[in-house]
Design brief:
This protein is of the alpha/beta class. The protein folds into three domains: 141 residues, no CATH class; 253 residues, Uncharacterised protein PF01937, DUF89, domain 3 (Rossmann fold, 3-Layer(aba) Sandwich); 154 residues, no CATH class. It has a seven-stranded mixed β-sheet, sandwiched between helices. Helix 5 runs antiparallel to helix 6. The longest helix has 21 residues.
């Protein structure tokens, strides 16, 4: 053991360097039940993970802090790790004894959990947060109690609603700034007041981070000393305000991650202030019970929360496509989604909708010390700028701004739509010149590791067609690929092109096309390409659905290639991936 001691940074730990390390990393992933190849229905693929984390080739990501990961890989039990395990155990015992009235039943599943706990202590490879998830699952399945904290969260929200409606809260938020600050142009003053209000709301939103339910009251608010802190302010949030710009000059999409019931009433005030400035906000809640963290379903049983969420659009679909998500975000300035989990921040278990929301937003507002552990104390870089804010146990307010790396290239909706519009203009011009417009759909990345080869194959054949066909304008998707674009970006762009109504002939790649391409290149067909055609590609399958849909409104469209029925054994194309999704074995 102790293999991880060879490495100074978690960024140095990669697949493919050492078979022994590869085996240890797979052991870590399988024991934590996070390995995609073992359970692809529960865990995110590498491509989906890259929506959130800026991983380099071979880089390994563990959803925990750096120090925790090194301890787990060394598979020893130092006091710091043991203490974290014991914290989870004590929390589980309190949960069981406080909420399961059947003592005999409680003793049974506590003993079951004790066996699991001993296994973990004997071979400490399980993350403490995953251990807690294990314990919660045991409790819920054995006791039959779906959400023991439902009434606690409701009580916290009720008390928070009283505070939000109080004169003390209104005074803290809207008290006049120091007279010395009110100088300058009116637009600068307007920007200053907006910034002051948002900072005050964010500070107030964190003051309940470590409060127990008894302290959660107006008396506690008065005794907290928060009013003076809020009035004084600071420059801690300057990086965030510089990013957001002033007076609505820049409109951003913001993903907001709250951390506690009660506190969410204050979070919603922050959201409303951001909306007033013209930004669009996505708030992500837990899918189910995770102690006092608010869940996606709480508003169904909590009148105060339902009232606070008035005007928000709730989206229950956990596998939204890029097009569907962007359409919803365009129609609704404030949407609420589930992150798909019942645990701390874990990208391997996040829903497809959450992963896409992260990718489509510009800034992540992450509240709470738990997220500081996962987003700041982790050396891996993330694909979006992050602001983490929280209040520690001593009551001090903290803000951490983490910029995305320069190497991460983002393709805005406007940029991708602009590329599509440019292609559509070329199609319109070709039609005006009397040319036949053909779209050629083929395998680009459905053969793992063969993306560049696929582009060469498709380009060779399209050039062959251009030499053979007179007055034909042929669109080759391989000629419009940009480094950094994933399948979500490309499918979004091509669907706009494909639904434009300017395509006369839509040709889908056949095996004979592939054979001809290799013949023209003077090479034999490699084994990995034998028998392949466009029906092998889940991207082409989605395009066949689009082609048939377009044909219904444009009956003159001619579709050439394999029979459409051969496509429909495929599932939806992979999330953010060029690699194919397996054929459904159930047919």
């Amino acid at each position: 053991m102790g293999l991880a001691k060879k490495y100074d940074s978690v960024l140095d730990i990669k697949y493919g360097q050492d078979p022994a390390l590869d085996a240890l990393l797979l052991h870590f992933m399988s024991e934590n039940h996070l390995e995609y190849t073992i359970d692809p229905l529960k865990n995110a693929s590498g491509e989906q993970l890259r929506f959130m984390i800026a991983l380099r080739e071979g880089e390994f990501y563990a959803p925990c802090s750096d120090w925790m990961f090194f301890m787990l890989l060394n598979q020893r039990l130092p006091d710091r790790l043991l203490q974290r395990y014991i914290e989870q155990w004590k929390r589980f015992i309190h949960l069981s004894r406080d909420f399961c009235t059947d003592r005999k039943l409680a003793r049974r599943f506590i003993q079951l959990a004790r066996h699991k706990f001993r296994m973990v202590l004997a071979s400490p490879i399980l993350m403490p947060s995953r251990l807690m998830k294990w314990f919660i699952t045991i409790f819920m399945t054995q006791s039959g109690i779906d959400d023991p904290y439902l009434h606690i969260r409701r009580g916290l929200n009720r008390r928070a609603a009283e505070m939000v409606g109080s004169g003390e809260f209104d005074e803290m938020v809207h008290a006049s700034p120091p007279a010395g600050d009110l100088k300058g142009r009116t637009d600068d003053l307007r920007s200053l007041l907006d910034r002051l209000e948002i900072e005050r709301l964010m500070r107030i939103a964190t003051f309940t981070d470590h409060w127990n339910p008894e302290m959660f009251s107006l008396d506690g608010l008065r005794a907290s000393g928060l009013a003076e802190e809020v009035r004084e302010g600071s420059h801690l949030l300057d990086p965030m305000f510089e990013y957001l710009g002033k007076d609505g000059e820049q409109r951003h999409r913001i993903l907001y991650l709250p951390n506690r019931a009660g506190g969410i009433l204050f979070d919603l005030k922050v959201v409303k202030a951001l909306l007033r400035l013209g930004h669009r906000v996505v708030m992500a809640l837990k899918e189910g019970f995770y102690f006092d963290h608010p869940t996606f379903w709480d508003r169904d049983t909590d009148l105060e929360l339902a009232k606070a969420f008035e005007g928000a659009h709730f989206v229950s679909e956990d596998k939204l496509s890029k097009n569907e998500l962007l359409n919803i975000m365009a129609r609704h300035p404030f949407i609420v989604i589930s992150d798909g989990t019942r645990e701390k921040f874990n990208p391997y278990r996040m829903s497809v909708t959450f992963a896409r929301a992260w990718k489509e937003c510009d800034l992540i507002l992450a509240k709470g010390e738990d997220l500081y552990d996962r987003l700041i104390l982790n050396s891996h870089e993330f694909t979006r700028d992050i602001v983490n804010f929280y209040r520690d146990e001593e009551g001090e307010f903290h803000v951490h701004f983490r910029a995305k790396p320069d190497r991460v290239r983002t393709f805005s909706e406007q940029y991708i739509a602009g590329k599509a519009d440019e292609i559509i203009r070329e199609m319109r011009l070709a039609r005006a010149q009397g040319k036949t417009v053909m779209f050629y759909s083929g395998i680009i990345g459905s053969v793992p590791g063969q993306t560049q080869a696929a582009i060469e194959v498709i380009t060779t054949f399209v050039n062959h067609l251009r030499n053979q066909l007179d007055d034909a304008y042929i669109i080759n998707p391989g000629e419009h690929f940009e480094e950094g674009m994933d399948a979500d970006d490309l499918m979004f762009m091509w669907e706009k092109v494909q639904r434009s109504g300017y395509i006369n002939v839509w040709r889908f790649q056949t095996y004979f096309d592939i054979e001809k391409s290799f013949e023209l290149m003077g090479r034999k067909v490699p084994p990995v390409w034998t028998g392949k055609d466009s029906t092998y590609s889940t991207g082409c399958t989605k395009e066949m659905h689009i082609a048939l849909d377009v044909q219904r409104s444009h009956p003159e469209l001619q579709i050439i290639g394999p029979n459409p029925e051969k496509f429909f054994r495929r599932r939806e194309y992979g999330v953010g991936k060029f690699c194919d999704v397996a054929i459904d074995s159930c047919g």
